Amino acid sequence: MDSPEYDSDDDEVPGLRKIIHIDMDAFFASVEQRDDPSLKGLPVAVGGSRERGVVAAASYEARKFGVRSAMASVQAARLCPQLVFRPPRFEVYRGVSRQIRAIFADYAARIEPLSLDEAYLDVTRDLRGIGSATRIAELIRARIHSDTGLTASAGVSYNKFLAKIASDQNKPDGLCLIRPGEGAQFVAALPLRRFHGVGPRGAEKMAALGLHTGGDLATQPLAFLREHFGAQAEYLYRAARGIDLRPVRANRPRKSLGGERTFDRDISTGPGLREALANIIDLVWGDIAKVGARGRTITLKLRLSDFTLRTHARSLAQVVEGREEFARVAEGLLNDLLPLPQPVRLMGLTLSALEGATAKGLIDLPEAGNEAGQMKLF
Fold first, then answer.
1. Cα dihedral sign for 180, 184, 186, 190?
2. Which of 77, 100, 142, 233 is the most exposed place for a label (fewest CB within 10 A)?
3. Cα-based distances in Å from 95 to 99, 125, 162, 238
4. How big is the chain by its Cα radius of gyration, in Å?
5. What is the DSSP string of 305-340?
6. How confident is the prediction along the chain (378 residues), in pLDDT tens digits per residue?
7. What is the topology classification, in CATH, of domain 256-355?
8. Is the pTM of this model over 0.85?
9. In DSSP terms, which residues pair with 257 in a beta bridge?
10. Angular region, 358: left φ>0, alpha ψ -120 to 50, beta rest
């Protein structure tokens, strides 16, 4: 039940916002199950089923067997021999994402998309006079289900950090409200692995220091956190207290546009790597041209067979003029790195230092195995 002070439409209360975080449930896999009714109730993975394939998304039926995004497909198949693989259909997912964002726009003037399947909405200004942030979230979820046949989970709170945590609390197809004054208590009982940005290694490091929950973290002074977590100390200090002053930012400047591919087999020869690069150039430039992005920095990323990472970048004085220049610079970056000490298992190419491109209509695609685009801080 909503608290009266939170449901009032009082935009003048200093620092008190009404934030909704909407997160689609197993988005890619759910779209596949929707479009192919024979898949309903079956464990489904979106991604490559070959030796080097990676799970981009897993249905909830698959998750019961331990299948997770970012997992190698061969491991997923071992955990769940009946797992059904479907190749990604990003154009379809983009289309559904546009439908969902149109629904958001009916209820919120300030929308911050994070990826194809999630977004923050600031509903402090009540566009439709509904009077309750929780009720707005319920209406949005109902509209999504009615218009797309898919389910979404929602978190409602007074800042972005708490809203995002809340959206994961009652998944799938659930809603969670964290009222003003409840944030610190809610976070205190939360495992640190649930904190946005804390990956498995970060959680292990925290556990080694005796930190397991938000409450444990809140007992530590800022100096201790700076000593052990460096630049992330301030974020952790505030998060452990349920504090987040970041506004919902619509039309955030996009930082980069790129793509990467994991190869079926490691590539060790120069000709083989140049052929692979040509394919990635076509892929990435197609996206660049499609959205009209203009940038000055081109970065080549190589992950070797021993999982070490090599990156090489070049920044131009002016924006890249066209595909020929983009390809010429990318090929030069690869030539600078050859010969390599190990074969290459993954190659990526990115255009950054963008000018004029924004998140509006330019939503970053989550990487394979990172459906929600979750950032790892350490």
1. positive
2. 142
3. 7, 28, 29, 37
4. 22
5. TTS-EEEEEEE-SS---SHHHHHHHHHHHHHHHPSP
6. 333 334 444 443 445 899 999 999 999 999 999 999 999 999 999 987 776 677 889 999 999 999 998 788 889 999 999 999 999 898 899 899 999 999 999 999 999 998 889 999 999 999 999 999 999 999 999 999 999 999 999 999 999 999 999 999 999 999 999 999 999 999 999 999 999 888 888 889 999 999 999 999 999 999 999 999 988 899 999 999 999 999 998 866 667 888 888 887 899 999 999 999 998 998 888 878 877 788 999 999 999 988 888 999 999 999 998 999 999 999 999 999 999 999 999 999 999 988 864 434 444 433 333 333 332 333
7. Dna Ligase; domain 1 (3.30.1490)
8. no
9. 351
10. beta
CATH code, residues 184-239: 1.10.150.20
Strand, helix or coil at 367?
A: coil
Q: Which of 118, 321, 331, 355 does the annotation list as catalytic?
A: 118
Long-range contacts of 133-139 (CB under 8 A, 24+ apart): 133/2, 133/6, 133/7, 133/18, 133/19, 133/20, 134/2, 134/7, 134/175, 134/177, 135/2, 135/7, 136/20, 136/107, 136/108, 137/20, 137/22, 137/175, 138/175, 139/107
- In this structure, are residues 14 and 329 in contact, taking their beta carbons and an 8 Å threshold? no
**Residues 77, 80, 81, CA angle at the centre, nearest 5°?**
65
- Identify whether 118 is a catalytic site residue: yes
Closest by CA to 150, choosing from 249, 30, 291, is 30
Residue ranges covered by each domain of the chain: 184-239, 256-355
| Cα–Cα distance, 196 to 363 (Å, whole number) | 19
Question: How many CB atoms neighbour CB 301 within 10 A?
Answer: 17
Segments of the chain assigned E as strands: 19-24, 44-47, 55-58, 84-86, 110-115, 118-122, 152-157, 175-177, 256-267, 294-304, 309-315, 344-355
Starting at the edge strand found earlier in the chain, the sheet holding 110-115 runs 110-115, 118-122, 19-24, 152-157, 175-177
Q: Do the first three CATH levels of 184-239 and 256-355 match, i.e. the same topology?
A: no
| 362 contact partners, CB below 8 Å, separation of at least 6 | 254, 257, 291, 293
